[in-house]
Design a protein that fits this description.
four-stranded antiparallel beta sheet
Length: about 160
């Protein structure tokens, strides 16, 4: 009986170690606030990711938090990023689908909704840093209802 209990404990420990070893490691996760009254088109949000501690592939995601005042079903973002010290610059347009055809928010939450959108996968070297600028690219100059925009970088 004790041998079966010991075997079971070893099996559970191995499963926990295997599951945690496969998870990605978050190296940066930061949000910037926007005025709920409206995020102006010319207000660029800036993120400065500190130097990488290891070479490798990194998954970059954009996070959004909105409330019920947001007037559209989607959001277009322009994301410009510069890898330093090489000064390699890349610009992406991220089209975020926030609300489905029935008017139901696709994000998680009750009064505020949280969204995560995959942006890109980057190959970064040790000591590389990222400078990221995000602005909206909607026809309306001022967008109400967006409370936060963030960047999450995880080592793959």
């Amino acid at each position: 009986m004790a041998k079966n209990r010991y075997s079971f404990l070893v099996l559970v420990m191995l499963m926990v170690m295997a599951l945690t070893a496969c998870q990605r490691q978050t190296v940066y996760n930061h949000y910037e606030h926007t005025p709920l009254s409206g995020w102006e088109k010319n207000d660029t949000l800036t993120f400065d990711v500190p130097p990488m501690t290891h070479d490798g592939r990194y998954v970059e995601e954009v996070g959004l938090r909105i409330n019920g005042d947001y007037p559209f079903t989607g959001l277009s973002l322009i994301v410009k990023q510069t890898v330093r010290p090489s000064m390699e610059t890349k610009s992406d347009t991220l089209n975020c689908k926030l609300i489905d055809q029935q008017g139901v928010a696709k994000g998680r939450g009750v009064s505020h909704y949280q969204y995560i959108f995959h942006l890109t996968t980057l190959e970064l070297k040790k000591d590389d840093r990222l400078h990221i600028d995000i602005r909206h690219d909607m026809k309306r100059e001022i967008l109400p209802g967006i409370s936060d925009v963030g960047i999450r970088l995880t080592k793959k």
